[in-house]
Structures are given as C-alpha cells and as structure tokens.
Specification:
2 domains, Jelly Rolls, three-stranded antiparallel sheet, alpha+beta, 9 helices, single chain, globular, 10 strands, Arc Repressor Mutant, subunit A
Amino acid sequence: MLADLPEADLAGWAADLQPVKLSLGQVLCESGSTAAYVYFPTTAIVSLLYLTQDGESTEIAVVGRDGVVGISVFMGGNGTPSRSVVQSAGEALRLPAHRVKQEITQAGAIQAMLLGYTQSLMAQMAQTAACNRYHSIDQLLCRRLLMGLDRLPSEALMMTQELLANLLGVRREGVTAAALRLSQAGLISYSRGRIAVLDRASLEQRVANPAQPAKQRGGAALMSQQA
C-alpha cells in the first residue's frame, strides 16, 4: 500500500516506520481499546473480528498488503469496534498512531490514500454481511480462500478447519464437509492445515456472488475486494 505513495510523502514517515514480524494469532488491537500503532502488512494477513457478548467471534474483514490495520486512529474514533488478529504470520511496517493523526489533518496524498482505503474496507464489510446472509457454506469457504490468495504470493494457505469455522462463524462440521466437496471436485487439496488451490477459476465460479454491488466504486482497490 505504501509503495503507491509519492517518495516525498513517504519520506516524512521514514524515520518512524518500524519493520515488525507478526506471529500467527497475535492480537494487534483488542476490541474497544485505543490503538497505539497502525500496521501496514507486507506479507502478513490480519483478520478483523467482531466479538459477541457471549465470546463468539466472526470475521468481518481481511487486511493484507493492500491495506492498513487501525483505521480508528485516523477516523476520529476513541476505540476500535473489532479485534485485529494475525491470521497468517508474516511481516508488516508499524507506525505510531500520533504520526498518522498528524498526517491525516493535511489534505495530501497520504490522507487521500487512507480515506480511499477506508472506503474499500467498508465495501468489503458490507459485502461480507450480505454474503453471510445469502451464501451457502461452500460459497463462503470459496470466497474466504480467494480473499486469502489475493493477499499472498502463493497458491496455498495455512489454515485449519477450526480456524476457518471461527472466521466464517459456522460449525466446524460444516467447513469439513464443504472442504471435502471442494477437494473431491479437484478445486483444492487439503493436508495438515495446508490448503492448496488447484483451480482458482472454478472457485470464483462457485461463489456466484449475488451480493456484488451493481456499481463498483473506488477503482482497483475496491475491485480487489470483490470475490
């Protein structure tokens, strides 16, 4: 994401950007808390989870190299409504929250980038809500695999069925059955938490997304969210 910024704008952050390694399951920001940093994933993938009062959770958005974790910092909120958890270990660039707040007050390229991404993230959340309502478990699984692939350089994901069930907000038995059907159809192979996609085009066809917006706004960043 930062690679799209003009060098002059990025130079202002250079001294404060810190490379960090993110481990699987690491919580970057807890629901209701104030973020101390924003994260720009480079190879890691972060899930934004909505928590219910009884402790259950479901994924509402996915952030990878195309985005930023911690939009509440520059959107004026006192806390974040979701938990940010590393879903795929990797690297990121970390920036103190106060530096982002300083920059967002300036009507420049950084402000435009952050607000543009926020729009695409909101579109992803809206589509996730619609898909959770209208899609079958098979379609939800296909969509989630595609979203992961869009944010990784490989055609394989390290995800257990239990993790997928938690992210999708469904029972593990449902994910197991859906994964078996996709495997038998030759679309994926699954072994010990490693899911390899063998036929991406067929996964995309199976999604058959009835929730896709009639008009896509926000250019390539928004289009990349559409499964």
